[in-house]
Specification:
The complex is a heterodimer of chains A (336) and B (484).
Chain A (H helix, E strand, L loop, with lengths): L2 H33 L4 H11 L3 H18 L1 H10 L1 H22 L4 H31 L13 H4 L2 H25 L3 H31 L2 H4 L1 H23 L3 H23 L2 E3 L8 E2 H4 L3 H28 L12
Antiparallel strand pairs in A: 1-2
Helix pairs in contact in A: 1-2, 1-3, 1-6, 1-8, 1-12, 1-14, 3-4, 5-6, 6-8, 8-9, 8-12, 9-11, 11-12
Chain B lengths: L7 H40 L2 H35 L1 H35 L6 H30 L4 E3 L6 E3 L2 H5 L2 H31 L4 H36 L1 H7 L12 E8 L4 E8 L2 H7 L9 H16 L9 H28 L6 H4 L1 H9 L3 H15 L4 E3 L3 E2 L10 H32 L29
Antiparallel strand pairs in B: 1-2, 3-4, 5-6
The chains are: A mainly alpha (336), B mainly alpha (484).
Subcellular location (chain B): Cell membrane
Family (chain B): Belongs to the cytochrome ubiquinol oxidase subunit 1 family.
Membrane topology (chain B): Multi-pass membrane protein
């Protein structure tokens, strides 16, 4: 393995971390459109918390996918063709929730507004759940042949472990979204988000513990890297505990950062366990490795230079855009 | 299982065609609208004329709808390479991934961040700064077109690579050559100008329908003027760049060029150009045609003499060149009828756009009322609102069908590129669902644009979710909900 290959493996992890951190609260807020927000005015506010941002957040996913293609095309090809149906459902979910905000705002009848509100809610739930399921299935190992073609069947990626993984990511996104709403709104919505999180966090703890137990039995993470895997799992729980403490003590920033770091811990856990592989095959001989799945040194070198010169600029205006919309949104009168 | 004669190759190709065509309804429309809206807002910034601000906001609404659909359909495009074309992804990763990643990094972040900034900050920033946001969106989306076309250009005309002897995959040796590919620099301006034309004539068409109803006459006449000036400049630009591009094909992709002109046999020195013809594609023959002398040579070489290779000759040449590697049973003929008619639709429409723009600008002169009296003209203009979408599709039909049987010209066939592990059932399901989703989104798009148009420029902003800053409510979004 060359150092450039290692850099790109880490970079893909960073991009997915960014995606889960940002799109995590995006998904969470999207899920809350229907049940959490009680009326049309509240929904306006809830959607507006992510209105200027969801699109840019989703670009992290597109960039992660593009970067994977540009650095590890074998990984990209195996992963995307192998998890065909899950990715297809993710796409459908992302499409429906993506257009829902703009479409809903322009619907005239309540029925159609409601339709697009459901599109946002269901789309966000499904997207978060399916991403969780996909990554959990991926680390459990899949049937992959010598050519790198994965031929997984329903039972390979839909099982207890992947379902728990899916639920865990969904709940993580949900609490992250609620923490984001606490930061961005005022009045009734802000209070309700706090109340919801007080109930959800214990559920999340239970989910995380169950996930860690299943991780032990379904993957080789603890066997191969006992120290780091344990450390990251502990970190995950600590970040979640910190966020919960922020909920109980009403420290909004602490909660938000805590739930964000929890999501990032999940990504780090996955990438740490994958290393030095990128795809885990049931037959270890067929696992895709960092060293034999990457592009040529020329392309990696080129992409490194380009990425490290463009990404800082992107981060500057990306963060600036959040700063511009930093202000809390007014709460609608009707909300209790 | 029921055998419908469907195979993964056919289904994967259909899916690529369908998703790309649908995606490309919205891409040029969005790029073009960003440009037109940016021009309008710049005029507002310069002149301080509130009409231009109203115009930017009004047409900006359509831009936002289009952008939303363009973004979400774009994700399918990126995922599709890995999902349906895994062998292609493995073969091309070294070349194709780079522009795709740069596209996301340099272009998508720019446009998606600044569209949020533009959309939600009317009145919050100095008007020049706000205008800069829409220019950045426009710049970002054009940049994304550049990078994806860089990737496409390699597929049309591979440059700057070697074949890795161990893996058999392509390997980049010169990024400069990949980006400097002449195919790209012929293709890119044509696509961008086409995008400007698309937005210009959709706006012009919308204006025409409203003028027929005598609705907001001043507003729509003013909008029409902006649209037609842009439409005229860039339809002429499209024709010029289209000419460059097609002449580039003569040597570079002679099969594509010959099919566009419907030439099975080599042309004679007289340069007879078939305005219309019938084909027998099985026997590789032209059955009848209406010929005009010299035009072919004028189009091909800008002079009256010269000859162009016909498809039969090109087919022989290609067999001589590629049989060693790909075997002698390859079929190098491209879908002739599709290319021939697509080319005529595209170039005919290009000329029509330029003509409409000139006549429209004459009728719409400031003190003239001609535009209101010449209702026939407004009807034509209104109908032509749909034409850019047909033309854009025709253009891509030529480019993509014309590289058959290659996915990467001369290096990899389409048949060898498809994912071997994806089932017919999966592909059939995704095709049906995508189709249904596109139908819904397309329908909603049309309804929303129609409604926006009917509501007119004075309607309150309905983007409920774009309202609601605590203090600095701008008048554009007032009344979306009540405040404490």
């Amino acid at each position: 393995m060359t150092s450039l290959q290692l850099v790109w493996f880490i970079l893909i992890g960073v991009l997915f971390s960014g995606f889960f951190f940002l799109e995590g609260f995006d998904f969470g807020v999207g899920m809350l459109v229907k049940s959490f927000a009680k009326n049309s005015d509240e929904r306006d506010v809830v959607i507006k918390t992510i209105g200027p941002h969801w699109d840019g957040n989703e670009v992290w996913l597109i960039t992660a996918g593009g970067a994977m293609f540009a650095s590890f095309p074998m990984w990209y090809a195996t992963l995307f063709s192998g998890f065909y149906l899950i990715l297809f459902l993710i796409l459908a979910a992302l499409i429906f929730r993506g257009v829902s905000f703009e479409f809903r705002a322009n619907m005239k009848t309540d029925t159609w507004r409601s339709f697009w509100e459901w599109a946002s809610t269901i789309g966000s739930f499904c997207a978060a759940f399916l991403f969780g399921m996909l990554f959990t299935a991926m680390i459990a190992g899949m049937p992959i042949d010598k050519n790198g073609d994965m031929t997984a069947h329903f039972g390979d990626y839909v099982n207890l472990f992947s379902l728990v993984g899916g639920v865990a990511v969904t709940v993580l996104s949900l609490v992250h979204g609620l923490n984001f709403i606490r930061l961005k709104t005022s009045g009734g919505l802000r209070d309700r988000a706090l109340a919801w999180n007080k109930i959800l966090y214990p559920v999340l703890f239970a989910g995380e513990v169950l996930f860690a137990v299943l991780l032990f039995f379904s993957t080789d993470f603890f066997a191969k890297k006992p120290m780091t895997t344990t450390a990251i799992v502990v970190a995950l729980v600590i970040f979640t505990a910190l966020a919960y403490w922020g909920v109980l003590g009403n420290h909004e920033w602490l909660s938000f950062v805590g739930s964000g770091l929890s999501l990032i811990s999940v990504v780090v856990l996955i990438f740490n366990g994958l290393f030095p592989r990128v795809m885990i095959a049931n037959n270890p001989a067929n696992s895709l490795l960092i060293k034999n799945s990457s592009n040529s040194p020329y392309t990696l070198h080129l992409m490194t230079i380009l990425t490290f010169s463009i990404l800082p600029i992107v981060l500057i205006y990306f963060i600036w855009s959040y700063w511009v919309f930093y202000k809390r949104l007014a709460s609608p009168k009707q909300s209790a | 299982m029921l055998n419908l004669g469907l195979d993964i190759l056919g289904l994967a190709r259909f899916q690529f065609g369908m998703t790309t065509v649908f995606h490309f309804f919205f891409v040029p429309f969005s790029i073009g609208l960003a440009f037109v809206v940016a021009v309008m807002e710049t005029m507002y910034a310069i002149k301080g004329d509130e009409d231009y601000k109203k115009m930017a906001q009004f047409w900006g609404k359509m831009f936002l709808y289009s952008f939303a659909v363009g973004v979400v359909t774009g994700i399918i495009q990126e995922f599709q390479f890995g999902m349906n074309w895994s062998e292609y992804s493995r073969f091309m990763g070294d070349i194709f991934g780079a522009p795709l990643a740069i596209e996301a990094l340099a272009a998508f972040f720019l446009e998606s961040t600044f569209i949020g900034m533009w959309m939600f900050t009317w009145g919050r920033f100095n008007k020049w700064v706000h205008t800069l946001f829409i220019w950045l969106v426009m710049f970002g989306s054009s940049l994304s077109a550049l990078w994806i076309l860089a990737a496409n250009s390699f597929m049309q005309n591979p440059l700057g690579y070697i074949i890795n002897q161990k893996t058999g995959h392509v390997q980049m040796v010169s990024f400069g050559k990949v980006v400097g590919n002449p195919q790209l620099w012929n293709e890119f301006p044509h696509v961008i100008f086409g995008a400007f034309v698309t937005a210009a004539f959709v706006i012009a068409g919308c204006c025409a329908w409203r003028l027929l109803k005598k609705d907001h006459v001043d507003f729509y006449r003013k909008s029409l003027n902006v649209a037609l000036v842009i439409g005229l400049i860039f339809s002429l630009g499209s024709i010029a760049t289209g000419d460059l591009q097609s002449r580039y094909l003569i040597n570079n992709q002679p099969m594509k060029f010959a099919a566009m002109e419907g030439l099975y046999k080599n042309s004679t020195n007289k340069g007879e150009w078939a305005a219309v013809s019938g084909f027998n594609t099985k026997q590789h023959k032209t059955t009848w045609s209406v010929d005009v002398p010299y035009v072919l040579n004028l189009l091909s070489y800008h002079k009256t003499t010269g000859t162009v290779k016909g498809m039969n000759q090109v087919n022989k040449d290609m067999h001589a060149k590629y049989d060693k590697k790909f075997g002698s049973d390859m079929n190098y003929y491209v879908p002739t009828k599709t290319l021939f008619w697509s080319f005529r639709i595209m170039s005919g429409a290009g000329a029509l756009f330029a003509l409409l723009a000139i006549v429209g600008l004459i009728f719409n002169r400031k003190r003239s009322q001609l535009i209101m009296k010449q209702r026939w003209f407004l009807y034509i203009m209104g109908l032509c609102l749909w034409l850019p979408f047909v033309v854009n599709t025709a253009g891509w039909f030529i480019t993509e069908f014309g590289r058959y049987p290659w996915i990467v010209y001369g290096l990899l066939t389409i048949a060898d590129a498809v994912s071997p592990n994806v089932s017919v059932a999966s592909l059939l399901t995704t095709n049906i669902v995508y189709f249904a989703m596109f139908a819904i989104m397309g329908l909603v798009m049309i309804i929303l644009c129609h409604r926006t148009l009917k509501a007119g420029p004075d309607a309150e902003n309905t983007d409920g979710y774009s309202a609601g800053d605590t203090k600095e409510l701008d008048p554009y979004s007032k009344g979306a909900f009540n405040h404490d």
